[in-house]
Design goal:
- By secondary structure, the chain is mainly beta.
- The protein contains three helices and 17 strands.
- A hairpin with a 2-residue loop joins strand 7 and strand 8.
- The radius of gyration is 20 Å and the shape is globular.
- InterPro entries: Aspartic_peptidase_AS (IPR001969), Peptidase_aspartic_dom_sf (IPR021109).
């Protein structure tokens, strides 16, 4: 069983996730209600399978005091990727019908449109990842002019679920992030692993991680940029 993060409006986040459930896998999502003063009135109702991606089902949905726990199961024969606001259960005040419903769900991923070698790409900005990634299909379609280099040392890349992430090599590319993400339009040179496509990456072919964000933060720490840079939180 893998413990993940649970996002609820008005509820603390354990950590935001992009989740892939393997066939037969059970995942436990946990969270803590932070803005509810009436603990005894809080209840939870599991969503039915018609609201979930095919093959997913809610095993249980419980709220104990202000602690929330939802277990989901992938009963299909293929991996299921969750990257949107997929609702598994609804929190509610059982004694007061006019209170707004709170949703127990996987939080929205932090996505943005960026330029990779002047080619537009949808990317996931993931401060929990240590390596930036571009998919094999995007590389072959738009970056074939960039040399695919090989590492001269062994590098094992492990995903959030503990699975090993294969890669073909790495590329050195110029990446431009939009001003609404980093405060101003700026281009940095980034090393990216080229990885095979999966269900999620077919829609979001690029992952920007801390190696790129740190490089960007270092680049912006100059007298000409200091007046306009935002706070970049890199854990």
């Amino acid at each position: 069983m893998i413990e993940g993060g649970l996002h609820v409006r008005g509820v603390s986040l354990r950590r935001p996730l992009v989740i892939t459930l393997e066939p037969g896998q059970v995942m436990q999502l946990t969270g803590l209600v932070t803005d509810c003063k009436r603990k005894t009135d809080l209840g939870i109702t599991a969503r039915t399978t018609e609201h979930l991606p095919a093959g997913l089902e809610v095993v249980s949905a419980e709220v104990d005091n202000l602690n929330v726990c939802v277990k989901i199961h992938n009963s299909s024969r293929r991996p299921v990727c969750l990257s949107h606001r997929t609702v598994f259960a609804e929190l509610h005040y059982s004694g007061c019908s006019e209170e707004p419903e709170l949703e127990a769900l996987v939080g929205p991923s932090h996505e943005a449109d960026i330029l990779v070698e002047d080619k537009k790409a949808r990317c996931l900005i993931d401060s929990g990842s240590q390596v930036s990634i571009v998919t094999e299909s995007f590389y072959r379609a738009h970056l074939s002019h960039v040399c695919l280099e090989q590492l001269n040392f062994g590098l094992k890349v492990t995903g959030a679920g503990g699975q090993q992430v294969p890669y073909l090599g790495f590329v050195r590319v110029d990446v431009s992030l939009p001003s609404d993400v980093v405060g101003l339009n700026e281009s940095v040179n980034v090393l990216m692993l080229v990885c095979p496509d999966n269900e999620f990456s077919r829609r979001v072919p690029v992952i920007i991680s801390t190696n790129a964000l740190r490089h960007l933060a270092d680049t912006l720490q100059t007298p000409t940029h200091m007046h306009s840079i935002p706070n970049l939180y890199i854990h």
